Amino acid sequence: MAAAAMSLPPERASELRELIQRQLLKMDVHGRIREVLAETIREELAPEHQQLSTEDLIKALRQRGIVDDVMKELKFVTDVNEKERTSASKPSTHFVAREPPVLKKTNIDPTRRYLYLQVLGGKAFLEHLQEPDPLPGQICSTFTLCLHFRNQRFRSKPVPCACEPDFNDGFLLEVHKDSLGDGSKMVDATTMLSICDPVHMVLIKTDTFGETTLVASHFLEWRSVLAAENGITNIAVELLGVGSESKVSVGVLNIRLEMYPQLSKTLSPEITNTQFTLERQKTAEKERLFLVYAKQWWREYLQIRPTHNTRLVKIFAQDENGVNRPVCSYVRPLRAGRLLDTPRQAARFVSVLGYERAPVIGGGGGKQEQWCTLLAFICRNKGDCEDHANLLCSLLLGYGLEAFVCVGTKAKGVPHTWVMTCGTDGTITFWESLTGHRYIHRPINPDDPPLVEQPKPLYPYRTIGCVFNHHKFFGNCQPTDAVEVCVFDLHDESKWKPMSGEAIKSVCSPGAASSVPPFPPLCASALDAAVTSNEIELQLRLLVSEHRKDLGLSTVWDDHLSYLLSPALAAYELERTTSISAGNEEFQDAVRRAVPDGHTFKGFPIHFVYRNARRAFATCLRSPFCEEIICCRGDQVRLAVRVRVFTYPESACAVWIMFACKYRSVL
């Protein structure tokens, strides 16, 4: 059916999808499936605890005739598709179903506890009060809800931005996962009450150009369901804004929580509320003690040298919700599974996540501080330099390196953060998280006589105030904070003032304080590199042809020459990741053969981290070299363009574009 749906024009496909969705709602299929699910789990809960597969559930639904009912009601869909299939004359060489299947095979294990979280619409998103309803097939701004709970990630279907956004999604969250000991025992309500991990919900807005904005970041306390009658509760969750608007309401989500299988015994609301109060008090006390310690540490630091008060020593930083958290809590060893193979590849991944300074409302020109939680950063796919440095440091720690985030300044005193690794042989390497560049640090000895040749620093960093990771924090107390003369012997307390590891652990280790959110796992890219490359390339060809037409020039494309540009783009990306250049000889040889005697070849490569062809083309035209190729005049002009998209985890990608032309040289 996916193949047939592909041949429908997008607006017809979305109309069909809406019809099906409406039909399913009308028949209350969700409700009926839920009844069968509960019944099946009850019936199949045999002592040998076998797994319930999707097939079992489908079989159960078939036996009760639900699947047949749906198919009968949707009979017209198959007829439409049959007609479309015969008329689809264009064969597709690289076929990809547009809509990723919503439900992968889910093994519902009847011995495990699940939390079924449904988002049933939103209201009071007043910023979108005036927004007209989108026409079918029209591109509009959308909301997407991203969830993280106990190492599981979920994403809602995008819905058009509106005052009452039409969210209608259900997520099955496994509560009994990972560390909860005895896998053979079904967890009861009391045990679950001790699981204080919240459901982290991040709301992202995507505009018509594909640009993303972080709208809200909310930690949902789900355990109220443990005291709800029949294990079901409906709550209205008020979402607050981010950054300077963290006290302003942006809208309300209607959420329904339900336990699977049903709890045999629920708790009383007094018990759950007492637990929440105790946790809050415990966290507040830990944070208060850490604050007392940090103030004492800072007083001691200032007593070493009064000028220390101008150094960038950062112990706390505000997150997207305006909450002050110790900087060490933003970093944690993070393993990328099989998504990234090497530390350098990790650095490349972090560098292709978009860079955007935290927005400042009104004048003043000051830098609005906003260190994002990891989920908010990766779901939005862009962030400030601190977000990049925290993620890169976490990944390098995951690869077993001794990595730290450095807080300091670059040229003109601009505050900046970057990453440093300390080798076992004492080598200090700086990693620039925004570019992926690496620099070896060789300190200048200010006491050397003038004739001694000093190393010339290649890195852009000027001063350094402190370095930290998930369990260490050091303030720079050397006579000067200039990076070029800095000695990174972190064990020497006369150069670096350490903070107590115990104090850091009390507020920054996972589970120590509920204000420190657990790290989500990284997800594989959902982009298809070949399809995306083709799409951008076709759009660029159209844009070039239109641009030349406006100049009164015709355009003849040379497909062979375009294909020959591929190896160069692959070599550029390889060089960015590994610092190794390879394959240039073959590329040059192929181009020489493709360009006859008496002809001239010109090529221009350029690199982007976004997929908007129009925006990329506008940037290319600003380069005189590229403009010269695109607007090339002459005899026998042939143009070529090649796009190669390299996908990375999440929705990060590196987009390489090469424009080229060949023409007969006229003397």
Automatic annotation (TrEMBL):
<protein>
    <recommendedName>
        <fullName>Centrosomal protein of 76 kDa</fullName>
    </recommendedName>
</protein>
<dbReference type="GO" id="GO:0046599">
    <property type="term" value="P:regulation of centriole replication"/>
</dbReference>
<dbReference type="InterPro" id="IPR038765">
    <property type="entry name" value="Papain-like_cys_pep_sf"/>
</dbReference>
<dbReference type="InterPro" id="IPR028926">
    <property type="entry name" value="CEP76-C2"/>
</dbReference>
<dbReference type="Pfam" id="PF24654">
    <property type="entry name" value="CEP76_N"/>
</dbReference>
<dbReference type="Pfam" id="PF24652">
    <property type="entry name" value="CEP76_C"/>
</dbReference>
<dbReference type="GO" id="GO:0005814">
    <property type="term" value="C:centriole"/>
</dbReference>
<dbReference type="Pfam" id="PF15627">
    <property type="entry name" value="CEP76-C2"/>
</dbReference>
<comment type="similarity">
    <text>Belongs to the CEP76 family.</text>
</comment>
<feature type="domain" description="CEP76 N-terminal">
    <location>
        <begin position="15"/>
        <end position="74"/>
    </location>
</feature>
<dbReference type="Pfam" id="PF24656">
    <property type="entry name" value="CEPT76_peptidase"/>
</dbReference>
<dbReference type="InterPro" id="IPR056288">
    <property type="entry name" value="CEP76_C"/>
</dbReference>
<feature type="domain" description="Centrosomal protein of 76 kDa C-terminal">
    <location>
        <begin position="527"/>
        <end position="664"/>
    </location>
</feature>
<keyword id="KW-0963">Cytoplasm</keyword>
<comment type="function">
    <text>Centrosomal protein involved in regulation of centriole duplication. Required to limit centriole duplication to once per cell cycle by preventing centriole reduplication.</text>
</comment>
<dbReference type="InterPro" id="IPR052299">
    <property type="entry name" value="CEP76"/>
</dbReference>
<keyword id="KW-0206">Cytoskeleton</keyword>
<feature type="domain" description="CEP76/DRC7 peptidase-like">
    <location>
        <begin position="369"/>
        <end position="499"/>
    </location>
</feature>
<feature type="domain" description="CEP76 C2">
    <location>
        <begin position="107"/>
        <end position="264"/>
    </location>
</feature>
<dbReference type="InterPro" id="IPR056290">
    <property type="entry name" value="CEPT76/DRC7_peptidase-like_dom"/>
</dbReference>
<dbReference type="InterPro" id="IPR056289">
    <property type="entry name" value="CEP76_N"/>
</dbReference>
